[in-house]
């Protein structure tokens, strides 16, 4: 297994779950910007084994992690909405 930041996958997954509730652009550029911005607010969790990945995912089930993740996403959406980098037609 290669080295993976499990937090990245969790952010992408959570964004998929909540993006329809957010009043934001869903284009690939905005999506990438939201994910990048949110990841910069969260602690990375690097692993290189399946067991390590399982431990991090188990830890991510805590209410505090969920709050931190959603807060980072909501702040990222707000920032990207105010400064979109996509090309508007």
What do these coordinates show?
The chain has 89 residues and is mostly helical. It has one domain. It is 64% helix and 4% strand. It is built from 4 helices and 2 strands. A two-stranded antiparallel sheet has the order 1-2. Helix 1 packs across helix 2 and helix 2 crosses helix 4. The longest helix is centred in the last third of the chain and has 20 residues. The protein is elongated, with a radius of gyration of 14 Å. It starts with a strand and ends in a 7-residue tail after the last helix. 15% of the residues are buried. The mean pLDDT is 92.
Quick overview:
The protein is mainly alpha-helical and 89 residues long. The chain contains four helices and two strands; from the N terminus they run βααβαα. The chain has one domain (4-82).
Can you give keywords for this protein?
mainly alpha; 4 helices; 4% strand
């Amino acid at each position: 297994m290669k080295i993976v930041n499990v937090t990245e996958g969790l952010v992408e997954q959570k964004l998929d779950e909540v993006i329809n509730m957010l009043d934001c652009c869903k284009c690939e550029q905005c999506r990438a910007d939201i994910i990048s911005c949110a990841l910069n607010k969260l602690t990375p969790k690097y692993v290189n084994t399946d067991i390590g990945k399982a431990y991090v995912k188990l830890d991510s089930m805590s209410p505090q992690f969920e709050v931190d993740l959603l807060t980072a996403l909501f702040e990222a959406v707000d920032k990207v909405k105010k400064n979109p980098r996509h090309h508007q037609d």
